[in-house]
Write a structure and sequence with these properties.
Keywords: Cell membrane, Membrane, Transmembrane, Transmembrane helix. The protein is mainly alpha-helical and 351 residues long. Helix content is 71%, strand content 2%.
C-alpha cells in the first residue's frame, strides 16, 4: 500500500527539484546518471557476482556514438573536429537538427554499447573471479588509449557536442529531465527483471556457478545477456553525460576509469550490492559527499573520497542497506508474504 505512494513521492520530488534548486541542476542531473551507473553495475557485480571494472567502456562508447551521430547526420565529422581544433568553419544546429540528432544519437549509443558488450562478453565472461576483474580493468584502459589516438573522433584534443540553439532553453534543465527519465526507466526495468526467471538465473550464478551449469543453465549466455542489458542503459547515460558536460575528453570523461569506473562500483557497495535500492541510496550519499567535499574541502576531495572507501569496507561491508536491516529488521527486514525476517536472504528483488 505504501510502496506506490513512496515511488510517486520520489518522482514528484524529482520533477520539481530543478525549480526548487535551480543552481544545482547540473549536479542533480549527474546524480540521476550516477543512479543509473550504480544500478547497471549492480546487475552484473551484485546480482550476478561478477565484479567488473570495465563498464566504463560502455559509457564511453555510448558517449562518443551519440555525439558522432548528432554531428554526422548534418556535417562531416572529420571537418567538424578539425574546426574545433582551431579552424575557421562555424557549425550551427537549428532546433530541428539538434533534437533529431539527439533522438537518433541516444539509441545509436545504446545500440553500439550493447554490441560492444556482446563482443567483449563473449570473450571475457568465460573468466571468473579476479581474472575477470583484472581483464575488465584492462579493457577500460585500452579503450581510453584507442580513443586518445583516433584523430577522426578528436584524439587527445577531445570532442565538443553540438551547440544547442537558444530555443532549447535551459540546457541543464533539459538534460536533467532526460537523466531523470532514464533513471526511472532503468529502475523499473531492473525491478521487473529481478522478479523473472532471468533474475533467479543470475542469482544462481552468483551463489554457485558450477551447480547452476550442472542444473542446465547456459551460464555464459546468461552472463553476456546481463552485461548487454547493463551496457544498453550505460550507452544512453553516456550520450546524456557527454552533452551535459559539453566536452568529451577520451580519458578524463569518456573512458574515465579512475573516476566514473570506480565510482559506479563504490556507489553500489556503499548502498548495498545485490539489492535494488542499495545502489540508489549509495549514489545519493556518494554524490552529496562528493559535492560537499569539492565545495568545502578544495584540494582534499580525493582524500575524503579515499577515506569513504576505507570506512565502507571496514564498517559497512554489507552496505547501508545491510547495516539498517541488521539493526532495524522490523522496518527494513526481508518481507515474505507479509511477514518480516531478519538476516541475509538469497533473493532481494523488491527492496
Amino acid at each position: 500500500m505504501y510502496r506506490p505512494v513512496g515511488y510517486l513521492a520520489i518522482l514528484a520530488i524529482g520533477i520539481v527539484a530543478p525549480f526548487l534548486f535551480p543552481a544545482y541542476q547540473s549536479q542533480m542531473a549527474e546524480l540521476w546518471l550516477f543512479i543509473v551507473f550504480a544500478l547497471t553495475w549492480d546487475l552484473v557485480g551484485g546480482q550476478m557476482g561478477y565484479n567488473s571494472f570495465g563498464n566504463v567502456v560502455f559509457l564511453g562508447v555510448g558517449m562518443y556514438a551519440c555525439v558522432l551521430a548528432q554531428v554526422g547526420l548534418f556535417y562531416p565529422v572529420s571537418t567538424y573536429n578539425a574546426a574545433r581544433g582551431g579552424g575557421a568553419t562555424v557549425f550551427t544546429f537549428d532546433m530541428t537538427q539538434y533534437l533529431e540528432g539527439l533522438a537518433i544519437g541516444l539509441p545509436v549509443g545504446a545500440l553500439l554499447a550493447t554490441l560492444t558488450a556482446l563482443a567483449l562478453g563473449s570473450i571475457v565472461l568465460g573468466m571468473r573471479g579476479h581474472y575477470f576483474a583484472i581483464c575488465t580493468l584492462g579493457l577500460g584502459i585500452a579503450a581510453g588509449e584507442i580513443a586518445n589516438g583516433w584523430e577522426w573522433i578528436g584524439a587527445g584534443s577531445g570532442m565538443v557536442p553540438p551547440n544547442a540553439p537558444d530555443a532549447v532553453g535551459d540546457l541543464s534543465r533539459f538534460y536533467y529531465y532526460l537523466a531523470l527519465a532514464l533513471a526511472v526507466v532503468t529502475f523499473l526495468v531492473l525491478r521487473w527483471l529481478y522478479m523473472t526467471r532471468f533474475g533467479l538465473a543470475i542469482n544462481a550464478i552468483r551463489d554457485n556457478e558450477d551447480k547452476a551449469e550442472a542444473m542446465g543453465l547456459k551460464t555464459t549466455q546468461i552472463k553476456v545477456t546481463a552485461w548487454m542489458i547493463s551496457a544498453f542503459f550505460l550507452g544512453i547515460a553516456g550520450g546524456i553525460l557527454g552533452n551535459l558536460k559539453r566536452f568529451i575528453d577520451p580519458i578524463d570523461t569518456a573512458f574515465a576509469g579512475p573516476t566514473y569506473g570506480v565510482w559506479m562500483v563504490l556507489m553500489a557497495i556503499l548502498g548495498g550490492k545485490g539489492t535494488l535500492w542499495g545502489p540508489v541510496i549509495g549514489a545519493v550519499v556518494f554524490q552529496v559527499l562528493k559535492e560537499a567535499s569539492w565545495t568545502y574541502l578544495l584540494g582534499w576531495q580525493r582524500v575524503v573520497l579515499g577515506l569513504v572507501i576505507v570506512v565502507i569496507v571496514v564498517f559497512f561491508p554489507q552496505g547501508i542497506m545491510g547495516f539498517v536491516r541488521e539493526r532495524f529488521p522490523d522496518w527494513f527486514g526481508h518481507r515474505v508474504e507479509g511477514g518480516t525476517i531478519a538476516g541475509p536472504a538469497r533473493k532481494e528483488t523488491l527492496r
